[in-house]
Predict the 3D structure of the following.
Amino acid sequence: MDIQFQSPVFAEKSALFTKGLLYDAYRYLGAHPLDAEKSQWQFVVWAPHAQKAAVVGEFNVWDYEANPMQPIGEGLFAAVIDHLAPGECYKYAFLTPEGKWIYKADPYGQAAQLRPATASCLADTSDYAWGDADYLVAHAGQHQRSTPMSIYEVHLSSWRQHEDGSLLTYREIAAQLVDYVREMGFTHVEFLPVMEYPLDDSWGYQVTGFFSVNSRYGQPEDFKYLVDQLHQAGIGVILDWVPAHFCKDDPGLRRFDGTPIYEHPNPLRGEHPEWGTCIFDYGRPQVRSFLISNAVYWMNEFHIDGLRVDAVSSMLYLDYAREAGQWLPNQYGGRENIEAIAFLRQLNDTVHAQKPSAIMIAEEATAWAMVTKPPYIGGLGFDYKWNMGWMNDTLNFMSMDSVYRKYHHDKLTFSLMYAFSENFILPLDHDEVVHGKKSLLGKMPGDYWQQFASLRLLLGYTFTHPGKKLLFMGTELAPFIEWRFYEGLEWHLLQYEMHRHMQGYVAALNHFYVEHAALWEEDFSWEGFKWLGANDSMHSIISFLRKGKDEQLAVICNFTPVAWEDYRINLPQPGTVEEIFSSDQPGWGGSGVTNTGLLHTQEVLWNDSPYSLQLRVPPLGVSILRYTPDPEPKPKRAPARKNSGAGKKAAKKNVVPAKDTPKAKKGAIASKTKPAANTGKRSAAKDKKRAVSSQKKEDKTGIKANPS
């Protein structure tokens, strides 16, 4: 039972709400049962400019005179109504300053009618019996970044559908998704928005009910069941969350009491010109209480592990997607949205204080500094940021014919110029396989075999590059066509061998990633990464070490369809390597160019290192080798000095010269050849030229149609 609005405690909460400091506003505003039988309900709404307010619904034939609300201060109205039951629909009716009655859904409503209906529904799921206690205990405390994170991004409507095209329910999704994600080796799922939204085409990014679980798939307790089952399987749950803007539809937040109270009153700051949505007024305290309470709500009430905050770039800049003269500068004459910046810092501080294990992720596509640094030193306070620069450079590079890649080698190496400036997630997300961009497989050049090999290469490179990982659903099926949000994934592709191989490869890659700490233990510092060969642009090959506390892995990525029999790489110390993963395994559709047994370093100078070795490098492939340096020799006791004459001169060691010009035919193994040593000049010069920004520049001419 909730606190009645007449109580002193409620008055204290109202004062905090007005100051922007009420972080569980959903407990006091909205509709809540006052008795154990859930028949008496209290309604509280913020409508500071309404002349009158009422609760209307099926129970009073939508008559605004039947159940009037009384003003209780701070712009709040309240009412108590008897003889109601969970599931009944309602709205608020307001008499606007212009003398017109309007009808609005409850901003704090916890359930909603199925589209196209727009009313809120009475809901109370406080008696749901959770079964994820062990998971919560295991993940209590501050989130540890030195853990594996491989995220499976899911759009609930189109992951799977019934044969007739109807949508699965939350419980039906749980019955299939949980085991699938676990078998595929992902550590987390990230759901595209599950809040209520009217337009299917928006994928959930134009929200009307921020506290309402999407009614397309069931009721709030059904979504709790889905999260519960994922947690019991050891899988974390992240939600896409959209505090950047909201839907303009009349039943929603726009001009809620007849005036703009949730959006900024000036259209130059309150409306998004390309998305056709309203922008929150982050300077208004009650709006901050609303949004921060919403973030806390999903974590407290639904046990969500984290939020990926959508379209952060649009929040940070007042001129985002606006031409000159179409935006208002801040009080200092700049384009930074000072109120939004303060809101994001308050949001992250509050969420981490309320739930230390919370994972806060920013989708931010500009060079804004310190996104993942704490607010007390000037950062925004996020745990992670999507690495949009890496994603754009990598996909651009992979879409080129391999003949031309040597001229754009810097697109591979530039990401390490800024890889440790933020805590990055590497996203191969939904936005990259829609709106004419082609599927990931469709982006790959070459023939049928080369396209699949290139996709395996892309994924292998992604999972060995510093940063956490995110794959959009269906990547593992290797579809040729783009994602279509209105129909299920192309599961029928698994009847074809190469597509089955790809699914098996992604599962193996995920499990390999989780099992090898060198790939995630030191993701955000140079302690976990060392270039071996960064500049072999002539052969489009890169090699590097990934380092953990107890393990080192050597990674070689070949971005051409030419295989090498005796490719030489340098290593920092004498030792051995053993291949433990290759994307070119025949079981995954590869050509079988692999390395067997232990390979020992030679005292051959290569890339300024006195130690190197030769190995086979597959075409369009990734090879991962366990590197074990030899133990440091124990210092020997110096022999006693003798006076019997001078010793012999040390014998001069022979250095095996490298061959200068490798010869290889496309598609065949180059026999007994050694590419020239890397000079490190060409690509380093390109990187310096590009270092004016550590991320892709803000794209004002190509803003995505559906912000996500």
